[in-house]
Amino acid sequence: MNKVRSLDDVINQVKDGMTIMIGGFLGVGSPLQCLEKLSEKNVKDLTVIAIVNSYPGGNFDLAPLFKQKQIRKFITAHSGTCPEAIQAYKNGEVEIEYYPMGTLIEKIRAGGAGLGAVVTPIGVDTLVEKGKEKITIDGKPYLIELPLRADIAFIKGFRADTLGNIQYRGIAINSNPVMASAADYTVAEVNEIVELGSIDPERVGTPCIFVNAVVEGYPIAEQQALYRELWIKSGYLHPKAE
């Protein structure tokens, strides 16, 4: 089965009110062209699950979705890096639901594995436990955390074959693999698409069984230039740095 699709085809799967997962960490390892298309389509009332918010400084990654009031609820571990999200929260335009980062990852993993819940001591006797069931195991209290799933997950890989096996590069492996298994429909945006058999099985980070569609994003050189320009503009990288 050839799972290669156009960006327009996969974005047309997104409807108002859906829950979507977005891979990446502060804009690194994020499905940039899928996010651009989501912004263009202007779908509304989305619940977005992402480990942290967008790249610091705004106007990139998830930021346009907040600016255009497309996100109704944001489930995350940290949201303070995005000026647009902070402003939307101050205006009462978005609800933010926080979890400790490790707990959030485990909730997503549980959703992908079909588990009924995970138990964790993180957050016991803090604000985190509000509204949650507690149990005692071997004399120690734990919180019961329910799984998280999404209608659609947008993940980012380096390379994919036509069947949907995904190879990652660098720290793009952050939240993408765990999200791939926790959605009803998973879209993998990659820098390049190769023929089946071109990826060494030992380099497959997400097997094709978890991927419904593959789309081609920025070529790797263009992606690197984009990030370099962003980091220089934000002051995180000196213009002469290699």
UniProtKB/TrEMBL annotation:
The keyword Transmembrane does not apply. The keyword Transferase applies. It comes from Fusibacter ferrireducens. Belongs to the 3-oxoacid CoA-transferase subunit A family. Keywords: Transferase. SMART domains: CoA_trans. PANTHER family: ACETATE COA-TRANSFERASE SUBUNIT ALPHA, KETOACID-COENZYME A TRANSFERASE. Gene3D superfamilies: Glutaconate Coenzyme A-transferase (3.40.1080.10). GO terms for molecular function: transferase activity. This is CoA transferase subunit A. InterPro entries: 3-oxoacid_CoA-transf_A, CoA_trans_fam_I, CoA_transf_BS, NagB/RpiA_transferase-like.
